[in-house]
Amino acid sequence: MELKSATWAPQVWKWTKWRRTRSAAVGCCRRRLQLTTLLSLTREPVESESRRRSAMAGSDPLVARPVSNQESEWTSSSVLTDLLGNFWVAGLAIVIMGVSGCGKSTVAALLAGALGCSFIEADDYHSQANKAKMSNGIPLSDADRVPWLESLRDAIGDRLDRGEDVAVSCSALQLKYREILRAADRSYNPGDYVTCRVKFVCLRASAEVITERMQRRSDEGKHFMPASLLQSQLDLLQINDAEGITEVDATVRPDDIVRDTIAQFREKLASTVPPCF
């Protein structure tokens, strides 16, 4: 039986629906040329089996008998299951978190550059109303944060669905906020932090260091967050040991933080990491 490009894509979808994830189907669309080559390698064994069955039925062994839709579906699905099990690589989202002024954006942007993946700046997803409140020194409420985090979650999920890595800069100060972001991994079960495809690295520094950075940045007009809101962020910051979040000294050189982060998650990344990392 010949598996043509017009027929194998629907079979991929059926297989992934049964697996309760659409990630592999999306990935296969992006890898059409590679999968077509792999499928061609399986064509001869499938045809040989068809001829063997035809011979047993008394027909010409060189002419493959018609194959039923059910049998075609089973054969295609089983072949693709074997192929995709080794071929598909899931993406990973690495969220650089911490209070404003700790260096999240700098580290996340460098990380994205090193991995050759996309970079998401969480501040870009704030509404104008949120930015206005913070600019006026008013802390955000959960009602302000949830829509922001949900839009950020959807942006991360789009990358993961395509089998891509993504570096994210987001404060993500509390567990309930991080749980919203973890839901970008559609297979995430709450509390199963080990297998979740959304990982967190927290940058920490003393209040004096952060205040100096925020004041300098505010004076230069580079950010809407005033230093007066630092204490409210420090009060919110909460990390549970069970989450397994890596905590890093924010005063370390950003390049070193990026190198150590890549080393930590190297085997989980879809990106091909250069040897220098």
What does this entry look like structurally?
The chain is α/β, with parallel strands linked by helices and 277 residues long. It has 11 helices and 5 strands, in the order ααααβαβααβαβααβα. A 5-stranded parallel β-sheet has the order 2-3-1-4-5. α1 (5-18) runs antiparallel to α2 (23-30) and α7 runs parallel beside α8 (175-182). The longest helix is centred in the first third of the chain and has 25 residues, at 32-56. It is globular, with a radius of gyration of 25 Å. Residues 1-68 and 70-87 have low confidence and may be disordered. InterPro entries: P-loop_NTPase (IPR027417), Therm_gnt_kin (IPR006001). It is an enzyme of class 2 (transferase). Its EC number is 2.7.1.12. This is Gluconokinase. One of its GO terms (molecular function) is ATP binding.
As a percent range, the share of strand residues is 5-15%
Total beta strands: 5
- Judged by helices, strands and strand pairing, the structural class is alpha/beta
Total of DSSP H or I helical runs spanning 4+ residues: 11
In whole angstroms, how far apart are the ends? 45 Å
**C-alpha geometry:** globular
Largest sheet: 5 strands, parallel
Sequence of secondary-structure elements: HHHHEHEHHEHEHHEH
Helix fraction?
A: 40-55%
Stretches with pLDDT under 50, minimum 5 residues: 1-68, 70-87
Strands ordered across the widest β-sheet: 2-3-1-4-5
Calculate Rg over CA atoms: 25 Å
Average pLDDT value?
Answer: 74
